[in-house]
Write a structure and sequence with these properties.
- The complex is a heterotrimer of chains A (175), B (266) and C (394).
- Chain A is mostly helical.
- Chain A has a domain at 85-175: D-Maltodextrin-Binding Protein, domain 2 (3-Layer(aba) Sandwich).
- Chain A has helices at residues 10-14, 17-30, 42-48, 59-68, 96-107, 109-112, 115-119, 126-131, 134-137, 144-149, 155-173; strands spanning 81-82, 151-152.
- Chain A has a two-stranded parallel ribbon with strand order 1-2.
- With 266 residues, chain B is mainly alpha-helical.
- Chain B is 77% helix and 0% strand.
- Chain B has helices at residues 2-33, 51-57, 60-93, 99-106, 114-125, 134-158, 162-170, 175-203, 207-212, 220-230, 234-265.
- With 394 residues, chain C is mostly helical.
- The longest helix of chain C has 42 residues, at 2-43.
- Chain C is elongated and about 100 Å long.
- Chain C starts with a helix and ends in a 7-residue tail after the last helix.
- Chains in contact: A-B, A-C, B-C.
Chain lengths: 175, 266, 394
């Protein structure tokens, strides 16, 4: 996206070899100015200590840092990446019935509207997003204007390409 | 001419003193910051406060980690000290050409990089269900701790006055009595020193802990590592300072043990 | 005759008791250290994965000479194996293993496994079915890769780790090996340079002062590597103590970048390893009478001349012992580069951990660890030769 690819075309571009080359060429450009992080709260640490001027991060961490550590970090939504997490019931789980009940409970609109104020992350149902107070709704990744400004992770693309891209990325990053 | 020598000599001394200062710098730089009244990690301090230490002792995460670390270190010592002591006594009696090779093998966990021990143990323990367990961590820590006991006890066994043992024997003492009444008291400082080494090795170890423990078995160094990477605040420095204090305490204890034994020998 | 037996028994007796005393430790280390390390060495050449997922294919390719396309039986074996593997949801394992040969094959295996009909009874001609699924099956490349991966042993991981395999991974690990040695060597050189004045200071003062100064060596040595690395991060980071002091004194205007790069790694590594260099140097300097230097000076040698001609040659054993020890230890640090280095400063241990826990390429992790292990063992043997086994525990 930094190289001018429209959000809707990101995965189409990355599916071609030229697209991947283009992505790495862009990475080459910014490489000298990058500090890498590998676990969720590191970006807050790097930003807070002044080590970096801007960072990628999970939006909930930013809310957490602002609320708990009295930071004043701002989010730039252009080019954001939306990922939807899943709940899984493992095959053969001893408490399958209760797990299904839990999922049903978590899926209720009146439960979902409770989360954003506590976690800062978006909600899983369209009804819940609509039911949120406007000031909270506007801070979430699931706000319609934020979804429009970025891309949603394409799980199928990653299932097919993750190993090859990871390998190339690791080789590139370590150079 | 004379001045040249002096400048050279004092230049050397000054450089040496600077190097020793460099060695102490990180230790003395962070301890005061853990008493900072404010949350910024810089000098001058914004007043003195114990609040970060209070935060440590009131956080279950840290307390849980301390408990895990103590359990692991004590269990490690319980395995490493007897094994290392027996082996040191045994090595003293053995006379054959391969002895130094045997010694080198027994202390090799000290030289092999910890990451290799960690990975080897991880590959080996994972199928046995010992990864993600405190038991697995204890076994792996015992591996790296045992050479320290062996080397330390071995040093005091080799200084043992064999004449005393022969004297006891010739006066008719049974071997076990000689061992209990003569050998053990004389090598006790070595055993205690080895135990201190072993305890410290386990208590400070993070690489193996990172590899083979799950979220349920986080030790103090492991929590400290996450703290340093993810939320480097004065609480983390308070934990680091506590670890420094423990290390310094163990060092003092060790010095005291060795001085007492030196006095006794004299 | 009887005296001979007695003599033998006396010689044997202590040995038997001694061996019995050493045995528990030897068995313990065998079970928890030597066998796991042996297992790790084996893992670096072990290649039985494909055989568990595609047993028919492995058997069918056993007699293939590689000159032309394999016989029809091999096509059928691949087809049936892939259908079975997909049913058992283990086709990914085969795809991953073949992906190590070339990432193209990973996609090929996965897409073919998906494209094949679930009911094998409907297939009459496996060769055309496979080629219809993907034209690559009509060329030798994938068959060569399957033959390479059929096990039971492979040199793939070791070749990748040593950079002999070609491809991206290899380029990466040549780089990592070179970097690991370069960082260890620089840290060793800095340590020796700094250890010289420190050890000479220790050797030139009285015993009491020396003992006191020795605490400056022992306290850091006793403080954990992690705590010291954390401490350096606090000191060196952008808003850290060091930059604050320099800016406060007006020496610099903007903070220096001292962490997440090579400088940070070298400073912290030097600090961690320095005591190991000072201690042997101090021992060898203390054994030298200072009258020698004075004699040389009084005979008219300049200070530098006296140092290089008289002093240095006599402390070379101390320097080489300390240097070798520092170098061996420097190869193996994980936490320090992790906290203070950038992605381009990570050493071999980082990639061992990365392949073990994140990329899940255990074969490669084992190969990298084996290389580090072998390098360490060789250097350790050299060290034992140099200073004797008794001196290892500093």
């Amino acid at each position: 996206m930094a190289d001018g690819v429209a959000p809707a075309d990101v995965y189409k571009t990355l599916a071609t070899k030229e697209g991947v080359d283009r992505a790495f060429k862009k990475l080459d450009e910014i490489k000298p100015n990058i500090v890498w992080w590998s676990s969720g709260n590191q970006p807050m640490q790097l930003l807070g200590s002044g080590e970096v001027a801007m960072t990628t991060s999970y939006n909930g961490r930013i809310r957490g840092a602002n609320a708990e550590n009295k930071r004043d970090f701002k989010i730039m939504w252009a080019g954001n990446i939306l990922n939807i997490d899943s709940w899984v019931i493992l095959k053969g789980s001893p408490n399958k019935d209760n797990a299904v009940k839990l999922l049903e409970y978590l899926g209720r609109t009146d439960r979902q509207v409770e989360w954003p104020a506590k976690l800062g992350y978006g909600v899983g149902s369209v009804a819940a997003q609509a039911a949120l107070p406007a000031d909270v709704a506007a801070t979430l990744p699931t706000a319609p204007e934020h979804i429009a400004a970025g891309i949603t992770v394409d799980a199928n693309f990653w299932v097919q390409n993750i190993d090859a891209l990871n390998e190339r990325f690791a080789a590139w990053a370590a150079k | 001419m004379l001045d040249g020598t002096r400048i050279w000599l004092w230049g050397c001394r000054l450089a040496g003193a600077l190097v020793l200062g460099f060695l102490l710098l990180p230790i003395f730089a962070i301890v005061p910051l853990s008493f900072n009244g404010g949350s910024i990690l810089a000098y001058p301090l914004q007043g003195l406060s114990l609040k970060w230490y209070a935060a440590v002792v009131s956080t279950p995460r840290w307390l849980h980690a301390v408990a895990n670390s103590l359990i692991v270190a004590i269990s490690t010592v319980a395995i490493a000290t007897p094994l290392g002591t027996l082996a040191a006594l045994g090595l003293d009696r053995i006379r054959f050409p391969g002895k130094s090779l045997l010694m080198a093998l027994l202390i090799s966990p000290m030289i092999v990089p910890v990451i290799i021990t960690a990975v080897g143990v991880y590959f080996f323990f994972a199928p046995l269900g010992l990864a993600n367990s405190l038991a697995g961590l204890v076994l792996a820590h015992a591996v790296i701790a045992v050479p320290l006991v062996l080397v330390t006890v071995n040093a005091s066994v080799s200084q043992l006055d064999k004449g005393l043992l022969r004297a006891a024997e010739s006066l008719g003492a049974p071997p076990m009595t000689t061992f209990r009444r003569i050998t053990i008291p004389l090598i006790l400082p070595g055993i205690v020193s080895g135990t201190i080494f072993a305890f410290a090795a386990s208590f400070d170890e993070v690489v193996i802990a990172l590899m083979i423990t799950g979220p349920g078995q986080k030790t103090l160094p492991r929590e400290l590592l996450s703290g340093t990477r993810e939320n480097l605040d004065p609480t983390v420095l308070a934990v680091a300072s506590i670890l420094i204090a423990i290390s310094a305490g163990l060092l003092l204890l060790l010095t005291a043990v060795q001085q007492r034994s030196a006095k006794q020998n004299a | 005759m009887t005296t001979e037996i007695k003599r033998r028994r006396r010689a044997f007796g202590p040995n038997a008791v001694g061996i019995a005393l050493v045995a528990p430790l030897a068995l313990f280390l065998l079970a928890t250290f030597f066998v796991p390390l042996g297992g790790m060495l084996f893992l670096s050449v072990d290649d039985r994965e494909l055989g568990t997922v595609m047993p028919g294919t492995v058997a069918a390719l056993a007699g293939w000479d590689g000159a032309d396309l394999p016989p029809a039986a091999a096509f059928e074996a691949v087809g049936r194996d892939l259908v079975e593997a997909r049913k058992a949801k283990i086709a990914g394992t085969a795809a991953r293993r073949l992906g190590y040969e070339s990432s193209t094959w990973r996609t090929l295996i996965q897409s073919t496994a998906r494209a094949l009909p679930r009911d094998t009874a409907t297939v009459t001609d496996w060769k055309s079915t496979l080629i219809a699924a993907d034209g690559a099956w009509g060329q030798r490349g994938i068959w060569q890769a399957l033959a390479n991966a059929r096990g039971p042993l492979t040199g793939l991981y070791l070749r990748s780790a040593l950079g002999l395999q070609g491809g991206q991974d290899s380029a990466l690990y040549v780089n990592v090996l070179a970097r690991t040695f370069a960082i260890a060597l620089s840290a060793t050189a800095i340590c020796i340079l700094l250890a010289l004045p420190a050890a000479s200071l220790l050797a030139s003062v009285g015993q009491f002062t020396a003992n006191l100064l020795m605490l400056a060596l022992l306290l850091p040595l006793w403080t954990s590597v992690l705590v010291r690395s954390t401490s350096w991060l606090v000191i060196l980071q952008k808003n850290g103590v060091f930059n604050q002091v320099l800016m406060g004194l007006g020496i610099i205007d903007a903070p220096l970048e001292l962490v997440y790069n090579r400088i940070g790694v070298l400073i912290a590594l030097t600090h961690i390893l320095l005591p190991y260099a000072v201690l042997p140097l101090y021992a060898s300097m203390k054994a030298l009478p200072c009258s020698q230097m004075q004699a040389a000076r009084s005979l008219g040698a300049g200070p530098l001349n006296a140092f290089f001609r008289i002093y240095l040659p006599q402390i070379v054993p101390g320097i080489s012992a300390g240097g070798l020890l520092v170098f061996i230890l420097a190869l193996g640090y994980y936490v320090t580069p992790l906290l203070l280095g950038g992605q381009g400063d990570q050493m071999l241990p980082f990639y061992i951990a990365y392949n073990t826990l994140q990329a899940l390429n255990w074969g490669l992790a084992a190969a990298l660890a084996s290389i580090l292990l072998i390098a360490t063992v060789i250097l350790y043997a050299l060290y034992v030769r140099l200073v004797g086994v008794q001196r290892v525990g500093v």
